[in-house]
Amino acid sequence: MAYLAVLSAGSGRRAGYAATLGIAIGLLIVGVGAALGLAALISSSRLLYEGLRWGGVAYLLWLAWDGWRDTTETSPARTDGNGIEAAVFTRGLITNLLNPKAAVFYVAVLPTFVDAVQPVLGQTVILSIAYVFVATAIHATIVSLAGTARPFLEDPDRSRMVRRGLSVALGTIAVWFAFSTAR
Fold it and tell me: How far apart are CA 179 and CA 29, in angstroms?
């Protein structure tokens, strides 16, 4: 959510919505995969879980590094905002596909809402779609509100400071993620 807020404030709502779409599709893929048993398989296999976990940590660290470097500067003063939508969409998508906590959510939380008497697959897909809808609505609200801060970031120095602050936060989250997802 912090990523979406800073992205939208720095690069505009259009970039934020593109990232939100990537996140939503990633959540939907994980949800459908969970409904088909993929999340349970990953959760039960130490090798698959650890591979996904460390892939996610490495990706978050790469995003932190990429955000720190000036070569990816996307502040309003350095770009018109065009051309970054595909990149931020892909980042949102990959971040959720490499997130074992998303898979664990679908395995641990969603089944508590499933009626064992009814067909499980259909219920799980419907619950996954509902979850994606609610998460996307929240993310879109964050993007809409954060987009109003864009004029504040017109100054390249201020924009760089915010971007680097986010990069430090993302690196910290990657380290926390590494420890919090350990089994």
Answer: 25
CA distances to 11, 121, 180 from 31, in Å:
29, 11, 21
Cβ atoms of residues 2 and 166 within 8 Å: yes
Place of tokens 């990537």: 22
The pair phi, psi for residue 128, each rounded to 5°, is -65, -45
CA dihedral 174, 57, 182, 44 (to 10 degrees): 140
Burial class (CB in 10 A: 0-12, 13-18, 19+), 158: middle
Which residue, among 149, 1, 166, 169, has the nearest Cα to 76 in the 3D structure? 149
Of 91-95, 141-145, 155-159, minimum mean pLDDT range: 155-159
pLDDT, tens digit, 9 for 90 and up, residues 26-39:
999 988 888 888 86
CA–CA dist 53, 26 (Å, integer): 16
The answer to whether residues 18 and 131 touch, using CB atoms and an 8 Å cutoff, is: no
Q: What are phi and psi of 166, to 5 degrees?
A: -65, -40
Tell me the two tokens of residue 41. 């398989």
pTM of the predicted model, to two decimals?
0.73
